Amino acid sequence: MLLEDQGKRLFRAHGIRVPEGRTIATAEQVPEAAGPVMVKALIPAGGRGKGGGVRRASGTAEARAAASALLGARVSGHTVRSVLVEEAVTVSREMYLSVSIDRSLGLPIIIASGSGGVDIELVGGPAFHRWTVHPFLGIREFHVRELTAALKLEGRESAVGDLLRSLWAVFTSLDCELVEVNPLILAADGELVAADAKVVINDDSLFRHPDLELPEPDGDGIEAAARSEGIVFVPLDGDIGVIANGAGLTMATMDALSAHGGRTGAFMDLGGTDDPARVRRAFELMAASGQKVVLINIFGAMTKCDTVAQGLLDALGGLDRSPATVVRLRGANEERAREMLLAKGIVAFPELEDAVREAVDRGAGK
Amino acid sequence: MIIERDTRVIVQGITGHQGRYHTRAMIDFGTRVVAGVTPGKGGELVDGVPVYDSVREAADEQGADMSVVFVPPRGAADSALEALDAGVRTVVIVTEHVPVHDAMDVIQYARLKRARVIGPNCPGIASPGRGKAGIMPNPIFTEGAVGVVSRSGTLTYEVVSSLSRAGLGQSTCLGIGGDPVVGTSFVDALRMFEDDGRTEKVVLIGEIGGTAEEEAAEFIRQKMTKPVVAYIAGLTAPPGRKMGHAGALVHRGRGTTRSKIEALEAAGASVATDPWSIAALVARAGRR
């Protein structure tokens, strides 16, 4: 997800009008304001308004105070490192407009609402108009006519058309999952202004956009370290770390722990690997995250059981202290892996149910 | 269903590490792998399978009903489009991390060609005793009458393996893929299982994110006569976090495990609370 100021620079480059503004990192940099301004926390997350990350200031002094309150604060789980100070547009009416992907239909979809004050949770509800867009056709004149009518912008069809085609250009040229303007403002001067810009780029497409500077993802050191090795690590609030191969299997293991009274302290998806060193690194990261118990659940396929056993033994050999470790193995090279672990005194369970019970017994419990 | 003994399968990206390994495994499973495609490697042989420079050549020389794509993300969509353009009826895209706009293009082109896409980011399809297109491990399967459809990979293998240990063989196992946009949906799969003479019962393995399971529930309620046993992973996953799969994300309060379980139960499916209780539920499930 891009920060709002990045999104707005993109919008401006595509001819969409956005409020005049400046990005600053210290309160001293707040520019002299001629009138009311908006001070907005630049974080890669939605729901900033509800989280207190958007403030209105009547002049320079208030804007400085707002900026200094926001800078360094935590908003919606992110630390605010910069804020956007921009002119407060005189609003005639607020609207909603986005282009995203409808997962069920597998098609791009325009969602719009002509009334303002949109609660993001309601997007897609009955007050919203929707049009799928075929990727081979793109935006056509009828889309523009219908959107103009839906937004009650009669007489402004050419402005609506320019805006929609520009949003579509951003959506397609940057491989977006979402391009959202909330609110889209009909300003007192009659122009359409994008008062916000939310642009979410598809992670799998980033190789096509090497010049994009994406905000640093949040998360502690372990999460970032895991990410840099292609391992998915999500910290949770229990005390049993789960390492499994595959997202579905890892989630199923967490659910089973919970159903038996345990609490998962971290989710780790090893993914597919044939490298024991990667398994070793994964276990070391999990051990460093302070779990009381680590439950390893492997169904050997692309990742073989003996690869995991080797990585685990290497990790345990190199660690001074390690959490209680419960291992469950099935699938490719299961027997060999079981023997490798048994030689070091580790019994690997064949049944997931037994491993889950053992892990719960060793954890803090309910 | 989808793959039969006489289905002519080609492998795109056959000369890569994954392509070679899984070509061997597909042949061992009994699949009729007739050709491979890697541009620039035409004339080579991989495990006795002739390699061609293009799908069109492979199709002209050997016939091609189905293609399995092992091409890396940058070229996966192009390979799939090439296969569709050459008239291949079913394209299985195993590749993970395919750009989502590419996936939409491929799926829409398949619709125009009245062809089927499975995936992307999927383990493919296996019909024990008939053939396999994809990467599911051979030893977990036994022939039987249970149809399995899933968004997961290893979790599916886990469930299939437990079914086999319980003496419940499979008619077809279909991995539809973990991405937000996929070519074959749960509903498509359920419709095929309902019509498939070899399938008596169906196991559906879903996970958090999207509304595919809710749509499946609606189809079960309206159209399915065969019993369905479901399991949904992710009950304890925190909202707003991507749990490994790009599609496994609870967004704006939609796609929670609860809503899926409730919809499936209301539709008459039995929902397992643990992966290991699926086999027992399948054994018990009777015709409705």
What features would you describe in this structure?
The complex is a heterodimer of chains A (about 375) and B (about 290). Chain A contains ten helices and 18 strands. Chain A is an alpha+beta fold and about 375 residues long. In chain A, β14, α6 (about 245-260) and β15 (about 265-270) form a beta-alpha-beta unit. Chain B folds into two domains: about 10-120, NAD(P)-binding Rossmann-like Domain (Rossmann fold), CATH 3.40.50.720; about 135-285, Rossmann fold (3-Layer(aba) Sandwich). Chain B is built from nine helices and 14 strands. Chain B has a seven-stranded mixed sheet with strand order 3-4-2-1-5-6-7, with helices on both faces. Chains A and B meet through α6 and β15 of A and α4 and α5 of B.
Quick recap:
The complex is a heterodimer of chains A (366) and B (288). With 366 residues, chain A is of the alpha+beta class. Helices cover 32% and strands 27% of the residues of chain A.
Average per-residue pLDDT of chain A, rounded, comes to 90
Broad CATH class of the largest domain in chain B: Alpha Beta
Whole-angstrom Rg of chain A: 26 Å
| N-to-C SSE string of chain A, H for helix and E for strand | HEEEHEEEEEEHHEEEHEEHEHEHEHEH
Do you know the CATH architecture of the largest domain in chain A? 3-Layer(aba) Sandwich
Helical stretch count of chain B?
9
Find the CATH superfamily of the largest domain in chain B.
Succinyl-CoA synthetase domains
Q: Classify the secondary structure makeup of chain A into a structural class.
A: alpha+beta
Estimate nothing, just give the exact number of structural domains of chain B. 2
CATH fold field value of the largest domain in chain B: Rossmann fold
Task: Give the strand tally of chain A.
Answer: 18
* Overall tally of structural domains of chain A: 3
How far apart lie the N and C ends of chain A? 37 Å
